[in-house]
Amino acid sequence: xxxxxxxxxxxxxxxxxxxxxxxxxxxxxxxxxxxxxxxxxxxxxxxxxxxxxxxxxxxxxxxxxxxxxxxxxxxxxxxxxxxxxxxxxxxxxxxxxxxxxxxxxxxxxxxxxxxxxxxxxxxxxxxxxxxxxxxxxxxxxxxxxxxxxxxxxxxxxxxxxxxxxxxxxxxxxxxxxxxxxxxxxxxx
Length: 188
Ligand SMILES: [Zn+2]
What we know:
alpha/beta; two-stranded antiparallel ribbon; 4 helices; 8 strands; binds zinc ion
C-alpha cells in the first residue's frame, strides 16, 4: 500500500485495506489513513461523490478501532421542489473491526458471540470484521455512516422555489404510526 512522507496510508478509489502489519504490532499502535473516492454507491439510487476520509486506525486487543471523519456530496431530490441538488455531508465516526484470524498462526479466533439468523437485528452492535486475509473492507462502514449523515427531509436551500416546509407534518406522521402500533399491541 502507498504511503506518503507523513506515513499516512492512501486509499484512492478503493475501500479494502490490508492491516496485517498493524495486527503484528502492540495494542495501541496506530496508522493514519487518507481515503479518496471519486464516486461511491450508497444504494440502488444514491451515489456519493468527492468522498474524503481522514481516519486513524488503532490496534486493539481484539481488532482495530477506526476513528475519523468523512465528507463529500450526495445528489438528493429536494423534498419541496423535487429538483436534484448536491447535498454536502460530513460525519464523524468510531467503528470497531473485529479480528477473526490470528495474524501469526492463521488460526481462527473464537468469538464469544456467534452470529446466527435470529440475531440479525443485532448486526450493528456486532460491528465489522477483518477477514481471514487480514483485510478490512470499509464499504459497509462508509455506507452506513454516510446514509446516517444525510438529512431526513432533503432541502436544496434558501433559494428553493418550492413551497415552504410544513413544520409539524413529520410529527403528525409518526404519531399516527404509533397509534397504529398501539392498536396492534392492544389486539394481542
Ligand atoms: Zn428545493
